[in-house]
Design brief:
Strand order of the largest sheet: 4-3-2-5-1-6-7-8
Structural class: alpha/beta
Distance between the termini: 42 Å
Largest sheet: 8 strands, mixed
Number of strands: 16
Shape: globular
Order of helices and strands: HHEHEEEHHEEHHEHEEEEHHEEHEHEHEH
């Protein structure tokens, strides 16, 4: 199997969101020899911030001398971003080899009438790669929810980390914050440590505390009150936590909150016997860059790329823009999917924009750019739509 054949095979499968449950991934992993039992895991769930927290944790662990895997979704620039070891993306040949081996058993399951989904196949291939690469520990981001997410086939992790929980994917996870939190908390398991982002809404926090108590595990809360001397610029972020100084390449106050969540996870991992020096934490923070998380593409002019796609993420983006850009107005290029709260997100961005250029994502769930432009028009006097002419929209901006 070639790399291109592997990607074609993966994408030919049904999307994970329509068939939640762990029976298929358990069967697939069992046929593969349960590769998920080889490394130890830090499991990360939440609505926003999962990817950044996972990336920071993986970088810190690599700097600490551990052979470290990282699993994230979705990707931004290339599929291989989803699976990495010690900061190196899985090679094309390694991905093809893992997918070829997974395919043998996935097709056996399909013949039995229970074909694995796209996400399950990717997840199984990642577990296989981490085992082959000799990973000692893996920072593992959930795909959707937690309780019935394919990544939850793992044994109790060293540590489960809950990032900020808010509204998204309500058609699958439930319409109340309590319902969504319950699904995310499915990664909390007896025998693990548990760490929580500092600024949860009361409804979500009540569920988190209840689920941790039910599993008999202590819950470590990151403390926003212990976060001081915060400075966020286009060159990075700096802060002190419990009096100790840190710096990030990641931009925005919300990334400082993600970072102190990671610091609490480091404390939990140290309690489990991992040796994580302070210098490794600081070095790991400074080395972590993550595509499309307020990514600075250009300094003159300043060009920022961000993947916010729900109200909570858009609020964090807007707060960061207000801090980083100040009174200067934005030229925004924006596209949305029609199953997201696009009206809220478009209004928030348009209100900050001197010009708003709508585009249409190359996705079957894309919102037409003309509709997005119409929504933004009452809040921005210069609004145009470009369809899929992305270069034209960027040139106009």
């Amino acid at each position: 199997m070639t790399y291109d054949e592997a990607l074609c095979y993966i994408h030919s499968k049904e999307r994970f969101g329509s068939r939640p449950g762990l029976s298929r991934i358990r069967r697939l992993c069992a046929l593969l020899g349960d590769p998920q039992d080889a490394p130890r895991f830090i499991h990360v769930a939440g609505t926003n911030g999962k990817g950044s927290v996972t990336a920071l944790l993986a970088s810190v662990l690599t700097r600490s001398g551990y052979r470290t895997g990282r699993y994230i979704s979705p990707y931004v620039e290339c599929f291989n971003e989803r699976i990495a070891v010690d900061g190196r993306y899985i090679a094309d040949g390694e991905l093809a080899s893992a997918v070829a081996d997974v395919r043998v058993f996935a097709e056996q399951m399909a013949e039995e009438g229970d074909s694995p989904t796209e996400f399950e196949i990717i997840t199984a291939a990642a577990f296989l790669h981490f085992k082959r690469a000799g990973c000692q520990v893996v920072a593992l981001e959930t795909g959707l929810g937690g309780r019935l997410d394919a990544t939850n086939v793992i044994p109790p992790p060293l540590c489960a980390v809950l990032t900020h929980i808010s509204y998204d994917h309500m058609q699958v996870l439930g319409t109340s914050l309590a319902d969504i939190a319950f699904e995310k908390c499915g990664i909390l398991k007896a025998g693990s440590e548990a760490v929580c982002y500092p600024s949860q809404q009361d409804e979500a926090l009540a569920v988190i505390k209840e689920r941790a108590a039910d599993e008999g595990i202590a819950l470590r809360m990151a403390d926003a009150g212990a976060l001081t001397d915060v400075e966020c610029t286009l060159s990075g972020s700096s802060f002190k936590y419990r009096g100790a100084p840190y710096r990030l390449r990641l931009l925005g106050y919300h990334q400082c909150l993600n970072a102190i969540t990671v610091l609490e996870a480091v404390g939990a991992l140290r309690q489990r016997g991992l040796l994580i020096p302070d210098d490794a934490v600081r070095a790991g923070f400074l080395e972590t860059a993550f595509p499309a998380r307020l990514e600075l593409l250009s300094e003159k002019p300043a060009v920022l790329l961000d993947g916010a796609h729900n109200p909570d993420g858009t609020d964090a983006l807007c707060a960061a823009l207000d801090s980083l850009v100040g009174e200067r107005r934005l030229a925004a290029v924006m596209g949305m999917l029609k199953d997201k709260d696009y009206a809220y997100c478009a209004e928030r961005i348009a209100r900050r924009s001197a010009a708003f250029f709508a585009v249409e994502p190359d996705n079957p769930r894309a919102l037409p750019s003309e509709l997005l432009s119409d929504i933004a028009a009452p809040f921005c006097h210069n609004t145009r739509h470009f369809g899929r002419d992305y270069a034209g929209a960027v040139a106009a901006a």
